[in-house]
Fold Acyltransferase.
Amino acid sequence: MFTFNRLISRFIAAALLFFMASLAGAEPLRIAVAANFTDTTRDLIALFEETTGHSVAASYGSTGKLFAQIENGAPFDVFQAADSARPEMLENSGSAVSGSRFTYARGKLALWSPETNVFSDPASWLASADFKRLAIANPKTAPYGLAAQQVLKNLSLWDALQPRLVRGDSIAQTFQFVATSNAQAGFVALSQVNAWQNSNGTLWVVPQQMYAPIDQQAVLLSHGKDKPVARQWLDFLRSPQALNLMKDDGYDIAD
């Protein structure tokens, strides 16, 4: 009996080693993620890899540029955009799996400066144009940039502030413009401010009625349709652990 038990134990150990080795050698899940979701995604990946043993490789950028890469054949398995329009376009074109699209988070726009007491009345400060540069993301490629444009148009300041606007290719670059004082303030994602190491600064969380909802949607791409881990990742994004992490980072959760 002792010998038999030892054989069983060795068999189980060998099977576990083989299983872990196969996971380690497996091709990683490849996800394309909107730049505003970078910090949150890194935390989500760490949790997912720890609990499943799967490897995840993420590429970050503006939603528009990632969309263009996917259209041109980039081998991503999942697309996590900062809008709903582009995932829907991919679904309609057959580049994504029909019925797999859902809103995983709802973003919040903020006007932020790392300096203290920059503005007390944001609308009046913007109207005064008492600054050299105001950073926004490119409205054509970045949904948070489009939201910033909508806010400035709502305040009737879009045309007047054109000479002072500096545009980032993505919301990540826009945040860097402000964090490094290349712009005195900028419209960024609230989640980026929450993740910033320095808690000082001036912040205005823009009322959501001033811009269209930033519904960030995920979709399973055709390249990943036969990968169970891709569907597992999408299910994970809707898990209580993932949703709580997103809330802590400053996102609203879709109904």
In short: The chain is about 45% helix and 20% strand. The longest strand covers residues 214-220. The beta strands are 29-34, 56-61, 78-80, 102-107, 109-113, 134-137, 165-168, 185-189, 202-205, 214-220.
